[in-house]
Amino acid sequence: MARTDAALLLAARTDAAAFRELYERYADQLHGFHLRRTADADAAYDLTAETFAQAWLSRARFRDEAGGSAAPWLYGIARNVLLMSVRRRRLERSACERLGVLTGTTTDPVPGEAWLDGLDEALAELPEGQRHAVALRFAGDLDYDGVADALGTSPQAARVRVHRALTSLRQRLAKTPEAP
User: Fold this and answer.
1) Right CATH number for 5-92 from 3.10.450.50, 1.10.1740.10, 3.50.50.60, 1.10.10.60?
2) What is the pTM of this model?
3) Looking at the predicted structure, is the pLDDT value of residue 131 above 50?
4) Which of 29, 98, 113, 134 has an alpha carbon within 20 to 30 A of 163's alpha carbon?
């Protein structure tokens, strides 16, 4: 007789094969859930993988509230993974717009995302205060008051640090590599 989802999750605390069985039961359904919402097969696979990764990490906290079924729990995780992905994408887009690396009216970065080349290096070259301010503003999604609180400075000083960092990044990323 087949074990319930709840029994599989209980067993999965010490037996990875039990979690694999749960994965096989729900992978196609959750992939379909993500595919219907993203209309992108690759993104749906990534989101499905992240959903199961989060389920694996939180398997010990599963509470059977649906008569042995893990479906509501898994779909809740899938929904949260999808929302976090949308939020990350929104933050990335906002940062790209502020950095001035989006072309014209399109929402896609410069073709081939070549603008990313050298970004890590350019960020590493910023003074620490500017680098930290940019990280708080864009990765931390803080407003200038929040950046100021984190840096222990005024909102105006935080705004200046972020502005200087963005100006420096724009200049560094706009430079074309010299020919060898």
Assistant:
1) 1.10.1740.10
2) 0.53
3) yes
4) 113
